[in-house]
């Protein structure tokens, strides 16, 4: 196939592709095809730009010769997806003494000086990276040129070819910089993403009559609703109108005259251009335009920059207006975008204990424990603990910790600091520039003048929307996700072909999950029901019982509590499946770790402290995660599982007799041998039989196995014989496949990922190669032994689009993830059903 040329004039028929020349060049070609008044433009391919970055210069003479002598030029970056960022525009290239003199004659000295000065500044500071202060106000072009000459030891270049060469080279290099690369990769760009460039004849925006520049769009960037938004500034260039308070409105200006009052035809032409673009480019576009003595030129159009909320609204509106299909609307929203619509806010009417105010760098609010390093953030995330990463400033090595944190606070930096930019990209609340905070990274303390010293582990709240950092927890308001969000999820539900359940342990979790319209509960970790203080005490009595009879007495008290838990869950879920996992963690997790706790427990149990301490010691294990937990508890202390099974069945019988039949699913954790399943199954079946007898109520249930040890995956065939379903617990399966503690991995994950030992943190992204192979092997063996056995995935990976793709391909019935991940998972699943291997195409703008 012939390679597309390096430099192409943008005409209706030129061979311009988004892949080679970037989305801006492609879009300009579409505008040209729509007969819109676009100034002469040339597209440079990303191959040419790549070579340029390495010092291999294209034919600049030929490029300059495309334009007329005396033309001023602009250059804009043109990456394949506009979301990937890129260098800012450079305007007025070609400006020199002669042209400045001409402009002075035609339009006056002030206009000429302003243009010349702004170009010298841009060239010196943005292109050659000279010190900004050298060119700060007040200054004239003459002084600016002298400053330039002083620094560079050569005069300010007068020749358009040398100016253009430097501009293009600096843009090419900026694209290759580490921060730019990390930023775009965080937004999904491939490692080898290229940058095209567009060189365009300037429409000056400075001159006689109705001359100036403006920007307009026809939807709100915040909400996506139809609404004309834009500004126009006479005698200006580029996007200057957006930053001037007295710039004019486009159509009607309550403050006075709008552009439309003076130039109705041009404003109508702009509106028509917006309508045409919406219809034919199938997108809401923001239009950059100039008027030159009343003549309209459209310089550029980009997808309207938009909030996540607007993104969803625009896609849904376009589909409802049949400009795009519903499938396309589903494909247009990156699943993680939905997280931003679901951000919590701090209740403005609630109490706020403000510690300090910084810059509101990324919206949303979160409460969590303070951590001072990326590794600590990863360790907290591995334990499902919310954390706030507090740093002096962040650097690229912190990215993984920033992913893991619930919010980020930095002492230094501003809106465009590393932390701010990355956090916004990730949708993590962030306050930057909180300069009142005094951090001592060695002692791991955070001090605010006049307040107590905060230590690692102390709880704070971050309000990324207001820039405030608060002490302790704050009352939150759940986000409102009505309207377009609900419509989009509706469409996703109608489209997807894999079930999405939620990991929900409590009625609150279940309510949240139901709000997102889940298909059921895929994992109810019953141990989380015992953390309430009253239950904890009874639980401890049970653990401390040395005689079976004492244990039975404690369990008798726990039974009605568990029955009430399940009754409530069944009621809430209204017949949707609820998969309940029998007790899993090591018992000592329920015991106090310090002296005070031991003394309190001794009091509660009416035992001597020494006896309590000895018993705790007795229960300690060297490696509890590989010790007496999961089904091993069920085998050695059968009364616990018997109590849980009875509670489940009594709740099932009650719901069934009340006319609300439920199909309870009971799941056995940490299985590694078939015999474990046989033993538990015999007991659970026996309890079901006695509850049926006692209540006279028939009911059904399913007993299944959680596959989370490598041996369970390998022996899935024989395990399946006794199981109605297999649910892959990829958290433990990842831990055990790698021999990697999920609680300690944060300590070394960053160097491991940075040095490429692991491509990703396998606790965040499913390891398709290793753990994935075990999943496929377990699924195949399970199915061979019992065709039609229900398979699913319920580790934290369940909400990750890649894992959903994997699970769908493997024919799993559902994935289960935390409630807040459900919308993301639904959208990802719908996208897979529409286009299993969708890649960017030339139709992407
Ligand atoms: C798992 O191991 O994948 C799982 C879901 O269980 P837990 O996280 O409770 O160990
Ligand atoms: Mg597990």
Report on this structure.
This protein is an alpha/beta fold and 845 residues long. It has 33 helices and 30 strands. The strands form six sheets. Strands 11-21-20-13-14-15-16-12 form an eight-stranded mixed sheet. Strands 23-24-25-26-27-28-29-30 form an eight-stranded parallel β-barrel, surrounded by seven helices. The protein has a five-stranded antiparallel sheet with strand order 1-2-5-3-4. α17 (418-426) links the parallel β15 and β16 (430-432). α12 (308-320) runs antiparallel to α13. 48% of the residues are buried. Mean pLDDT is 90; it is low at 838-845. The structure holds phosphoenolpyruvate and magnesium ion. The site of phosphoenolpyruvate (PEP) has 10 residues, from β24 and α29.
What's the short story on this structure?
With 845 residues, the chain is an alpha/beta fold.
Share of β-strand residues? 15-25%
Residue-averaged pLDDT: 90
Label the overall shape. Answer: elongated
Q: Given the helix and strand composition, which structural class is it? A: alpha/beta
* Fraction in helix: 40-55%
List cofactors, ions and other ligands: phosphoenolpyruvate, magnesium ion
Rounded Rg: 32 Å
Distance between the termini: 24 Å
Q: Note poorly predicted spans.
A: 838-845
What does the main sheet amount to?
8 strands, mixed
């Amino acid at each position: 196939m012939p390679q597309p040329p390096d430099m192409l004039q943008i005409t209706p028929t030129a061979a311009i592709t988004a892949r080679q020349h970037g989305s801006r060049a492609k879009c300009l070609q579409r505008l040209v095809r729509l007969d819109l008044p676009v100034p002469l433009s040339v597209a440079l391919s990303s191959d040419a730009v790549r070579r340029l970055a390495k010092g291999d210069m294209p034919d600049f003479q030929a490029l300059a010769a495309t334009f007329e002598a005396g033309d001023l030029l602009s250059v804009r970056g043109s990456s394949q997806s506009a979301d990937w960022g890129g260098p800012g525009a450079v305007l007025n290239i070609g400006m020199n003494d002669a042209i400045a003199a001409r402009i002075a004659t035609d339009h006056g000295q002030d206009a000429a000086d302003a243009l010349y000065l702004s170009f010298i500044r841009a060239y010196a500071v943005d292109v050659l990276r000279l010190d900004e202060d050298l060119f700060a106000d007040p200054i004239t072009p003459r002084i600016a040129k002298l400053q330039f000459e002083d620094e560079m030891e050569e005069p300010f270049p007068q020749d358009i070819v040398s100016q253009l060469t430097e501009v293009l080279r600096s843009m090419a290099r900026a694209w290759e910089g580490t921060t730019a690369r990390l930023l775009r990769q965080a937004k999904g760009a491939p490692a080898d993403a290229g940058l095209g460039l567009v060189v365009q004849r300037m429409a000056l925006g400075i001159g006689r009559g109705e001359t100036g520049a403006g920007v307009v769009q026809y939807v709100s960037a915040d909400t996506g609703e139809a609404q004309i938004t834009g500004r126009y500034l006479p005698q200006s260039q580029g996007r200057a109108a957006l930053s001037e308070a007295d710039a004019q409105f486009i159509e009607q200006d309550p403050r006075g005259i709008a552009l439309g009052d003076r130039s109705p035809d041009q404003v109508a032409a702009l509106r028509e251009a917006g309508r045409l673009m919406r219809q034919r480019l199938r997108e809401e576009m923001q239009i950059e335009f100039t008027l030159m003595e009343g003549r309209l030129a459209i310089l550029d159009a980009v997808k309207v920059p938009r909030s996540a909320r607007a993104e969803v609204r625009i896609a849904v509106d376009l589909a409802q207006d049949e400009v795009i299909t519903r499938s396309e609307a589903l494909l247009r929203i990156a699943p993680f975008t939905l997280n931003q619509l679901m951000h919590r806010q701090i209740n403005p009417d609630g109490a706020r204990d403000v510690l300090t105010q910084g810059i509101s760098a990324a919206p949303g609010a979160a409460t969590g424990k303070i951590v001072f390093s990326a590794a600590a953030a990863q360790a907290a995330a591995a334990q499902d603990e919310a954390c706030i990463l507090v740093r002096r400033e962040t650097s690229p090595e912190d990215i993984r910790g920033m992913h893991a944190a619930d919010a980020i606070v930095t002492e230094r930096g501003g809106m465009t600091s590393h932390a701010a930019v990355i956090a916004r990209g990730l949708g993590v609340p962030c306050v930057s520039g909180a300069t009142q905070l005094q951090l001592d990274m060695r002692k791991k303390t955070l001090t605010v003048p006049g307040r107590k010293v905060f230590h690692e582990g102390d709880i704070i709240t971050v309000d990324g929307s207001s820039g405030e950092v608060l002490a302790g927890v704050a009352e939150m308001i759940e986000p409102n996700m009505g309207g377009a969000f609900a419509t989009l999820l509706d469409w996703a539900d109608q489209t997807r072909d894999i079930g999405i359940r939620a990991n929900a342990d409590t009625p609150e979790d279940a309510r949240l999950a139901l709000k997102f319209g889940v298909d059921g509960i895929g994992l109810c970790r019953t141990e989380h029901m015992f953390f309430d203080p009253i239950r904890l005490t009874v639980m401890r009595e049970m653990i401390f019982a040395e005689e079976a009879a004492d244990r039975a007495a404690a369990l008798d008290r726990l039974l009605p509590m568990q029955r009430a838990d399940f009754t409530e869950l069944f009621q809430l879920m209204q017949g949707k499946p609820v998969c309940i996992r029998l007790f899993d963690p090591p018992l000592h997790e329920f015991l106090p770790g310090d002296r005070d706790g031991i003394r309190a427990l001794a009091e509660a149990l009416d035992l001597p402290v020494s006896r309590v301490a000895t018993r705790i010691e007795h229960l300690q294990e060297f490696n509890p995660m590989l010790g007496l937990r999961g089904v091993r508890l069920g085998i050695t202390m059968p009364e616990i599982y018997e109590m849980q099974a009875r509670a489940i069945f009594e709740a099932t019988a009650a719901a069934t007799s009340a006319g609300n039949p439920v199909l309870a699913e009971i799941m056995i954790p940490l299985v590694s041998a078939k015999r474990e399943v046989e033993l538990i199954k015999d007991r659970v079946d026996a309890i079901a039989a006695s509850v049926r007898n006692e209540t006279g109520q028939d009911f059904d249930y399913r007993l299944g196995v959680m596959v989370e040890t490598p041996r369970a995956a390998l022996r899935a065939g024989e395990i399946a014989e006794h199981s109605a379903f297999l649910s892959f617990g990829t958290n433990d399966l990842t831990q055990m496949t790698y021999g990697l503690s999920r609680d300690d991995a944060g300590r070394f994950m960053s160097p491991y990922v940075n040095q490429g030992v692991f491509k990703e943190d396998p606790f965040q992204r499913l390891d398709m190669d290793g753990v994935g192979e075990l999943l496929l092997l377990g699924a195949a063996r399970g199915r061979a032994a019992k065709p039609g056995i229900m398979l699913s995935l319920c580790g934290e990976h369940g909400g990750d689009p890649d894992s959903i793709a994997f699970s769908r391909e493997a024919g799993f019935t559902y994935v289960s993830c935390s409630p807040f991940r459900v919308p993301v998972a639904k959208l990802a699943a719908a996208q897979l059903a529409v286009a299993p291997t969708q890649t960017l195409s030339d139709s992407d703008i």
